[in-house]
Amino acid sequence: MVQYKIEEFCALRDGHRIYCNIYLPLIEGEKLPVVICCHGYGGNHTSSEGYASAIAKNGMIACCFDFCGGSPDSLSDGSMTEMSIFTERQDLIAVMDTILSRYKSADGNRVFLLGKSMGGAVSAITAAAMPDRIKGLILMYPAFVLVDDIKAKFSNVSEIPDTFEQLGLTIGKIFAQGLLDYDIYDEIRGYDKDMLIIHGDRDGLVPLSYSEKALEVYKSAELKIIPGGEHGFYGKYAEKAAEYTLEYLKKHI
Q1: Which residues contact 45 (CB under 8 A, 6 or more apart)?
Q2: What torsion do the CA atoms of 235, 118, 51, 214 make, to the nearest 10 degrees?
Q3: End-to-end Cα, the chain, rounded Å
Q4: Nearest-angstrom CA–CA distance, 220 and 24
Q5: How confident is the model at residue 136 (pLDDT cuts 50, 70, 90)?
Q6: What is the mean pLDDT of the chain?
Q7: pLDDT value at position 2?
Q8: Dist CA 140 CA 142 (whole Å)
Q9: Helix (H, G, I), strand (E, B), or coil: what is residue 132?
């Protein structure tokens, strides 16, 4: 296994500071693949530390960061009432650009996105917006359900209050207003490279059917179903997800 070090840095998006941890393999003189890990709704950079460590031990750069307003515990600027999947897409692009400009060992031709839950949805729409820049995509229980959740709550923009509760957290109108007429599956079909979806068959928050539908939309996707896996992988389920992730990355780097 490769030794690595962890460094902190900040990216900027519209004056907002984005807190990042980057895992740098101690390999001299080589351009290395980059895997950017995106946390889910209400999470932060710590949720992907295990995956980032495994990736770095296998000779690839990994980065975990906090979306602006991504959770009450975020070390980045902004509040949850200012956050949407579209602001998070801009955060992700800013992090990617900063890594490629800051770290000479980062290979801009081999950038992968690893997104969990809502971070999976954000990774998917980011990859679709710039497929030439994203070498590969790994989505863990991606929250494509979030569009239907908002449409079930509000029928038009006038019904959306300035703030509202979603899954026990307070978010803002900006989160919902862009989703009422949004077709996320039509959006993500713009990414046509090989990609991987990992989903548990006991996910009670994002039903497996949403990933099965994505499989029909993507031109070159594989769905790995983890028996017994719920929303969020821990223990043996996380180990299996890491195994699938490393298999995919090694095949495509």
Answers
A1: 19, 20, 21, 37, 39, 64, 65, 66, 75
A2: 90
A3: 17
A4: 30
A5: very high
A6: 97
A7: 97
A8: 5
A9: coil
pLDDT of residue 22: 98
Positive or negative, the Cα torsion across 177, 181, 185, 191? negative
Three-state secondary-structure class, residue 29: coil
pLDDT per residue over 185-204, tens digit each? 999 999 999 999 999 999 99
Cα 126 from Cα 87, distance rounded (Å): 11
pLDDT at 31: 97
Report whether 143 contacts 188 (CB < 8 A).
no
**pTM for this structure?**
0.97
In the three-class reduction of DSSP (H, G, I as helix; E, B as strand; rest coil), residue 55 is classed as helix
The domain spans of the chain are: 4-144+185-252
User: Domain 4-144+185-252 belongs to what topology?
Assistant: Rossmann fold (3.40.50)
93: tokens are 């692009």
